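User: Teach me something about this protein's shape.
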Amino acid sequence: MRAQDIFLLAFKALKDRKLRTGLTILGIVIGTSMIVALIASTTGLTASVTAQISKMGVTTLTIFPMSGRVQITDDDVAALVRLEGVQDVIPYYSRRLQINYGSTILSVQVYGLDHNKLLTLYQGLDVGRGGLVDTYDPTGVIVGSSISRPPEENLPSVDVNELLLLEQPSTGRSRAPSFAYLVRGVLKPFGVVGFLNIDETAFISLLGARLTFKLTYYSGVYVIANSPEEVTIAQASVQNYFGTNARIMSAQSMLETVQSITGQLTFFMGGIAAVSLFVAGVGITNTMFVSIMERTREIGVMKAIGYRARSILTMFLAEASITGIIGGFLGTITGSLLSFLLTTGLPSFRMGPASRGAGAGFNPVITPDLLMFSLLFPIGISIIAGLYPAWRASRLNIVLALKYE
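Assistant: First, the predicted structure itself:
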């Protein structure tokens, strides 16, 4: 019997039982769409986090002094430069201030550091308008794109050579201290990197931070290793220097940790979705057993006119495979659309304080391997689920089948 005839008979049998076939296919669609949506979403999350951390560079170490244990000074910076595996050290001051627009307040992070090393520290960062702040300029500032052009249309913008007024968060009835800066440059949109949203950050010089905030000790330092291979050496050297008085984080270790977590999340989510597909397979088995009982006499007639057991087995397996093909195809399309809906509504991964820009979604990643798996796996489940019922149908006794009512 030709394969074409087998599939035509199988398709006709499914068409004659529209409701039952539709419900069976629906179960496969749900399972397949969940697999695609969840795996694509978690893979997209991994890619988003990887891109964020990569902006800092895999050779960068961030050192946070433990509160009350150690205070980082210029002597510490000079000592860190001489450690094994260390190429450069970038100290910084950090304060959280706010821009008061009356009824609206925009919270921004202010960093004081050497602007000659700013573009090296953040991979791909560039100035859109104006330029960097000079080392000896105490009042100059370069601002992120969201500060220059706030997301709210009713808020005023700030551009190069304009005055920017930042103030400390108010803690009482008295007016909070404010600080005036002259905008020297505006950064291009950059997004989140590590613990910081660059678009909502203002950068001033080290001198400006010392004079304005009356700071004596650094808030932290960035240590640049000689190469990716020497990151571990540099981290060990810095850890030995500070002991337990400082917390050290490397972009590489953060990346490995996040990838490990999201990898486990992908496996877990995919497993849950696969269970629903196996449940759909049980439904296929049940549906085919009912179908065989209803068509027992028909099977007997087919055997009487010369159909072999192999042909009947193949026909029922063709019904199961058609169900899997349709369910897998529709499930893949549905899951792809669902993954975009999920990631649009979910906030992107942030490793720092909450921010107004943290609500942007990330894009799902739908790979060819995922598409191939989502199409073939439901077909395989359907064939396995239909194998035993099809075998039972092919083994029916002709006489008993013809006498069946």
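Now, about its shape. Residues 210 and 257 are 35 Å apart (CA to CA). DSSP finds twelve helices and twelve strands in the chain. If you'd like, I can walk through any region in more detail.
User: That's plenty for now, thanks!
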